[in-house]
Design brief:
With 100 residues, this protein is mainly α. The chain has helices at residues 2-25, 29-50, 56-75, 88-93. The protein is elongated. It starts with a helix and ends in a 7-residue tail after the last helix.
Amino acid sequence: MSKLIIILAVLAFLILSFQGYSYVTTRTGKNRRDACRQLGIFFFVLGICAFVVRSAPVTFAGLILLMMGMRLMAHGLVRHGKTGFRNSEMAEKGRGEGQN
């Protein structure tokens, strides 16, 4: 019976986390990048901490949170203008990103 209660609590928590994920990814601009990065790190840390419990439902929830955290951090790295990560030397010489 206690396993069922744990499973229901984990499902409720995952539903709430997915709502937060959906809310953050619908934002725009700098707010989206910052919020995605912050929530992604938070989910990633919670996913790692879930491994300490050593219970199957909590461990699977931790894996799901790890994946959601990595995806949110990737959403936070979206570049506007596509010049955010360019090497300054290449930009001065006028080379394209794919040329050496």
